[in-house]
Amino acid sequence: MRSLLKRRFHNSVIIKDKLLILTGITTTNSSEIFYLDLSKPFDSGNLTWTLIPNGNLPVYTSRSTAVLSLDNSTIYLIGGFMRNKYTLDYDYSNLIYTYDYPTSTWSTPALNGDEIPPRQDIKGVIDNLGIIYIFGGYNATDLVRNIGPLFNDMNILNTSSNTWTTLNLENRPTICDEYAANILPNGIIVYIGGVEQVNDGANFTLVNMNKIKLFNTYTYQWSQMNATGDEIDPRWFFSSVLTPDGHIIIFGGCTRNFSGVSPNLAVLDTTKKPFEWSIPSNSKINSPPSIRGHTANLYYDYMIIIFGLDTNTGLFSSQVYLYNIKSNNWVTTFSPPENEPSINTPENEPSINTPGTNKPLAIYIGIGIAIGIGAAFFVFGIYIAKSKCLHKPKTVVPEPVNTTSDPPNPFNLAPENYTYNPPPP
């Protein structure tokens, strides 16, 4: 089982007290879904993982994004490098897959709207109306030399109507991928870090961590905020979580040349204007090694960091690390909260071991019951306003060709405009 765990560029989501792991680059091809039961105490050095019966993905994929539906019943798997499980050829015949958690079933949804562009190195977020937002990303159109363009467009998937739309927006930010994305309760998406090209012909560089991109999901407008506070190294291949009190915690990643970054962990306070970076004083004590290509999820008081690649050794990791967001220190033991209500959970459980009883803090409720009928009309009005803002894309990204080997991933800055050679992750 340990060889199955070791991976990078995977996805992780929490459903009904289960931390699900799927996709990623492994030492051997893997399409399984497995989980860690968060309803029971555990030690991070002695974990019990459980395979989900009949949960295997229909393709091998990595560097994709997985977004959980509002009712916690469906995983939307979007983009990434996709391979046919039988021929190992690249296979982009379907760019979105859905996993129904109650029935443990994968399917390809029938979508309306614009053509879906192939993308890798993206992060998706979902708002409280069930609309998934995906910004920019990379598309390897030459899978032999791993050359392709970066983007700065905004694509959205309305999960209620199964409609994909590429928004036609003005004042878009620089082309970018491998960023962190978190949506605040006020509907603002915060984009941090990654790789960008500031203008045509310029080299590709890491984004200044003080240059925060903001996207308003109500007005569909871009803006930028210049954060203050402690100095944070630029990075990519890192993770982030949003806490209930409005702090974005980032962890790990690497420099452009794949060395470690400082600090390993940092906190962006989005309740201050401008946003402010800080480095918790205890966060360097017993800190994990520098890793990249991992994932992070928030479960009550714990930031759970999963797998990745050890930057110092270059080896795959099967480790899980725990950061207590209340005490701001690293811990090795996990204790589930007691008497916490379960919210937004599926009505049925799939046939897997040890069903949980508590609900993770995965989604913030934007509208309380006490607001009543008036809030419902308000949300409906916003929904209609958003629908009127959707436009056709100006261009369609060509579908990449299939090859039978992984991209070589040399870090050679390409001379062509909007052409990108990502490095070996």
Tell me which CATH architecture applies here: 6 Propeller
Question: Would you state the CATH class?
Answer: Mainly Beta
Q: What fold name stands as the CATH topology?
A: Neuraminidase
Radius of gyration equals 20 Å
Low-confidence stretches: 343-418
Region (Disordered): 399-425
Keywords: Kelch repeat, Membrane, Repeat, Transmembrane, Transmembrane helix
Pfam families: Kelch_KLHDC2_KLHL20_DRC7
Transmembrane segments: 361-385
Notes on the structure:
With 425 residues, this protein is mostly beta strands. It is built from 2 helices and 37 strands. It has helices at 2-5, 373-388; strands at 7-8, 11-15, 18-22, 25-26, 34-37, 42-43, 49-51, 59-62, 65-68, 74-78, 81-84, 96-100, 105-107, 112-113, 124-126, 131-138, 150-158, 163-167, 175-177, 180-183, 188-192, 195-197, 205-206, 211-216, 221-226, 228-229, 239-242, 247-251, 265-269, 276-278, 291-292, 295-299, 302-306, 309-310, 320-324, 329-331, 333-334. The chain has a 5-stranded mixed beta sheet, with no helix packed on it. It is globular and about 45 Å long. Mean pLDDT is 84; it is low at 343-418. The chain crosses the membrane at residues 361-385. It comes from Diversispora epigaea. Residues 399-425 are annotated as: Disordered.
